[in-house]
Write a structure and sequence with these properties.
The protein is mainly beta. The chain contains 1 helix and 11 strands, in the order βββββββββαββ.
């Protein structure tokens, strides 16, 4: 059973940075894509970024300007560097993975495995 554990959430002020990390365990095959989603209470979960083992990255909207996803395929880890954070980035951030979808498809059509989330709170 694949288990994803996120770390790195917290509270910072607008304009500051945070780095989220996720480690997958229990992987018997491979995780072709790993990525990040976020959800604000009362709203649907939205994709943030994903990266596949081929090195392709997919970002949602304009987040690419401020967020950078990276991963270590051998270690089954994925990081999300978030810069110039705004209050609108406040959300629960979830790590996710898919065994076969590429970055774009996994970001927009869903993942198979999910972490429990880490809370990011941005204050003005």
């Amino acid at each position: 059973q694949v288990v994803l554990v996120e770390t790195g959430g917290g509270s910072v002020q607008a304009g500051e940075s945070l780095r989220l990390s996720c480690t997958a365990s229990g992987v018997t095959g491979s995780l072709y894509s790993m990525g990040w989603f976020r959800q604000v209470p009362g709203k649907e979960r939205e994709g943030v970024a994903a990266m596949d083992s081929g090195g392709s990255r997919s970002y949602a909207g304009s987040l690419k300007d401020r967020f950078t996803i990276s991963r270590d395929t051998a270690k089954n880890t994925v990081d999300l560097q978030m810069n110039y954070l705004t209050v609108d980035d406040t959300a629960m951030y979830y790590c996710a993975a898919h065994p076969s979808r590429d970055a774009y498809d996994s970001l927009y059509y869903g993942m198979d495995y999910w972490g429990k989330g880490t809370l990011v709170t941005i204050s003005s």
